[in-house]
């Protein structure tokens, strides 16, 4: 009987220790998204092409991430995420890109906010994706194409994500305010080259969201001291009327060395209908530089996104693009997106 009691007690202790370990175990998930579309594609001033491409509404990617409960309302987080071109089966958004360029970070969450270090998307990129009806589509959103894509002028330098980044997101305070800040450490002795900064102040209350962002990129994409620096200020908001959600943004930036100055206005609306939504957006960028005459660019997009299920949707899009000094271009596309 005594022997049985000792065995039972030992089993109970081991069971409790095992339960405690499981309670604090890291919750790891494999996730991602595959987005493919077929299009007749043409930007202003370029010939048209018929393409099968990856990343229409969202750039295709995969990821592994997890959280661990540290107790006291605190948790550890991590994620490693890579872009992919599903049309060719290659990694990255472009040939030669590193495998984990979407994100690769570790961090802590708690009452004081969220801290992350690693490779991270910038606060400005995240905000611009949240303030237009097409979300993070760098193929069809007038705002995202003109801000981030080289063929459309790439108004903002420094890529949508930064290496060697330190990131902070505050808790909500003051009835709806929050702050996001990020720095990219250039890791160079005796120089500020590469020490980029990006910050967002946001206010959300019910259907209203307004925000302002400021970003300084000191070296462009190639980590060269000779590359131009750039300052960007971006402001915008959205309001959800239930029957329609409207968006408006304005940004201006100045690039040193080239004297490039860009001002961009954007408006958009998303209208739910059935199991999907209609989307319309327009953006105009006005640009002046030291090396060419002033010009402006208008991009207008319209489309419908239909949800087949919680994880799968299909879409049809049309894009009109016109540079003031070139012939117009028109794109028609249809695609499918699946989340896993």
TrEMBL record:
Transmembrane segments: none
Keywords annotated in UniProt: Cell outer membrane, Ion transport, Membrane, Porin, Signal, Transmembrane, Transmembrane beta strand, Transport
Membrane topology designation: Multi-pass membrane protein
One Gene Ontology term, aspect cellular component: cell outer membrane
Molecular function terms, GO-annotated: porin activity
Porin domain segment(s): 10-322
The keyword Transport appears for this protein: yes
Organism of origin: Pseudoduganella ginsengisoli
Signal peptide coordinates: 1-23
Major subcellular site: membrane
UniProt KW Acetylation keyword: no
Assembly and oligomerization: Homotrimer.
Subcellular locations according to the entry: Cell outer membrane
Protein name in UniProt: Porin
InterPro entries: Gram-neg_bact_OMP, Gram_neg_porin_domain, Porin_dom_sf
A biological-process GO annotation: monoatomic ion transport
Origin superkingdom: Bacteria
Pfam families, sorted: Porin_4
